[in-house]
Hints:
The protein is an alpha+beta fold. It folds into two domains: 31-369, Beta-lactamase; 386-469, Beta Barrel (Lipocalin). It has eleven helices and 21 strands. The strands form five sheets. It has an eight-stranded antiparallel barrel with strand order 14-15-16-17-18-19-20-21. A six-stranded antiparallel sheet has the order 2-1-13-12-11-10, with helices on both faces. A three-stranded antiparallel sheet has the order 5-9-6. It is globular and about 75 Å long.
Amino acid sequence: MRNSVLRLIAFPAALFLLLLLLLFQNKALGHSGIATYVTDQNPEPAVFPASELDAFFDHLYHHNRFMGSVAVLSGGEIVYRRSVGLANVEQQIPNTDRTRYHIGSITKVFTAALVLQLAEEGKLRLNQPLSDFFNGFPAADQITLTRLLHHRSGLFSFTSDPEYTSWMTEPKPRNELLELMRSYDLHFEPGSRTEYSNSNYVLLGFIIEDVAGMSYQEALEARITGPLGLEDTYYGMQISADRNESYSYSYGYSDGWEKQPETDMSIPHGAGALMSTPTDVVRFAHALFNGKVLGPASLEKMTQLKDRYGMGLMHYVFHDKTGFGHSGGIDGFQSNLVAFPDEDLYIALTANAIAWSNNSLLVTLLDASQGKPVELSDLETVTLPEEHLRSLAGTYASGQIPLEIRIWEEEGNLMVEATGQGAITLDAASETRFRFDPAGLVMEFHADEAGEYRSFTLFQAGMEFLFERK
């Protein structure tokens, strides 16, 4: 599921990136509101600089920034795959191309496809109200399957409840989850706006089971993974190394990689319960956009956008290329799928440990597909005197964006807190340059003629903003 949902937040101020993307709609990998219907094309496969990318992912792993796998499909073929790090740190089991990862909200793409298949067969209607399936939900007559698919139901996402993390590792039967979801007030009138809610897709998963007359896993296998030969994609359960499954980790600077708790898979269901590999994910996306999962009319419905969301899909823009995809995050896992069907280019990554910008990884792979050189980031850090860090402290504001940033020294670290966000710890690359790699953020401080630091430039996602001390 997305970054703040169904996972323990390893890097709480990743909101830095989200806030800037929302404010300025950066087009590096932002969302657009333009609906696009894709056609079946088969251009020549992109030529990937495999050795450069291998060195890039090795570099991230050796600096404790990334453990996981990536896969790229172009021209109908897998043109690049790479796995680094450990699926099981305690037993020193390496990640491989067949390691299975929790893919979080990429599950929603599969769920939407299953619902649309059932609609094609006349087993349900997209304009059917939730009241046809479950009783007791507020405004259930106004919440259609279409509104669930587009996150326009108004239903509160139960995974955003502050109490959620206190029980997410324990099994929850369907009746308890239904009762929980019924207990919240509507956030808005159904259909009036869009708000991402995992409750929507948990309910869709239950509806798939009831209409198909089988479990979600059985429906998935009968309708998608079986016909497509996706042997590494299935409904997750408690993680087991015996099934080539990866555990997830976050990086503690004093203790190294720390294993994260496991969400019980009875909870995310159709919103985020699947395990898979990047290879299976790109093969599924390729099949979806080439008419092997849905008919043309259903695919067109799936890709029609309302407030940046299709049905189980989001819209992505990279330079002059437009496509679709979804991100995922659950426990310490992060994943992403981007599909550019007009280019026949599909990229997926699955990380079981990441202290780097997910967006930056995708941009590197997309740039490589365009023949751009792969650059190794400077990840070395230095230790600076507390006195120097205190000289940078203060509250800064920018004339370019409505955001204030407070900076202070704490136990030998430079701390940063932006308006409405949690505090983060920056890594020092030099006396004037600091980084927060999980969000791809860099801050460069500037000394005035008197040698005092009274301003800095914030670099993120291809943008830069000047901040001055108040």
